């Protein structure tokens, strides 16, 4: 049915279908909704996407998303506790932890997890930059907040081994994080329990 639509709408559907959890049928509904909403809404969406593409970048220090040149707001905040880094998979995890108010240190965002099957190795996770920070900032505790999936556990195990050699205390989020669960989608109480009960790893 999509083949009967104008070429530009077909292209929009194809682009929208690349979003996580959005199949072709959902992408077509979104595209047709935008078209029905009219030119002003379409231009507003296009403008917002263009702004993100032009303005958002990765923090030089922790690889979180920022519009700032250099360091993000969290890394640049002098009120944050020095000596503690929380390692997460994605920026959504940072948002979840910050919303819960559980951590006052700084972060390191991997954006990927170690996965031999997908060909993702340590060099793609900026491990060298992490180790440089641990040494330069005299980090005393590294909190591993990767998901309880196979790749998440593989990543946590690898990181714990190399971080232990640097002399930092390595902890892992404890009970409350279900196997296969993602930090980003945990409720406040579950995340609080997991963070407060973290253990040496």
Mind explaining what this structure looks like?
With 201 residues, this protein is of the alpha/beta class. The chain has two domains: 2-55, RecR Domain 1 (Helicase, Ruva Protein, domain 3); 58-200, 3-Layer(aba) Sandwich (Dna Topoisomerase Vi A Subunit, Chain: A, domain 2), CATH 3.40.1360.10. The protein has helices at 7-16, 24-37, 39-55, 73-76, 91-100, 127-136, 150-165, 188-196; strands at residues 57-58, 65-66, 84-88, 106-109, 141-144, 169-172, 199-200. The strands form two sheets. A five-stranded mixed β-sheet has the order 4-3-5-6-7. The mean pLDDT is 88.
Please render the helix and strand layout as text:
Blueprint: H1 7-16, H2 24-37, H3 39-55, E1 57-58, E2 65-66, H4 73-76, E3 84-88, H5 91-100, E4 106-109, H6 127-136, E5 141-144, H7 150-165, E6 169-172, H8 188-196, E7 199-200
Parallel strand pairs: 3-4, 3-5, 5-6
Antiparallel strand pairs: 1-2, 6-7
Helix content: 40-55%
CATH topology (level 3) name of the largest domain: Dna Topoisomerase Vi A Subunit, Chain: A, domain 2
Please state the second-level CATH architecture of the largest domain.
3-Layer(aba) Sandwich
Strand count: 7
Broad CATH class of the largest domain: Alpha Beta
Q: Biggest β-sheet: count, sense, barrel?
A: 5 strands, mixed
Q: Ends: how far apart? A: 53 Å
Could you report the average pLDDT, rounded to the nearest whole number?
A: 88
**Helical segment tally?**
8
β-sheet strand percentage: 5-15%
Q: State the strand order across the main sheet.
A: 4-3-5-6-7
Over all CA atoms, what is the radius of gyration?
20 Å
What is the number of independent domains? Answer: 2
Give, in order, the helices and strands.
HHHEEHEHEHEHEHE
Overall shape: elongated
List low-confidence stretches: none
* Structural class by SSE content: alpha/beta
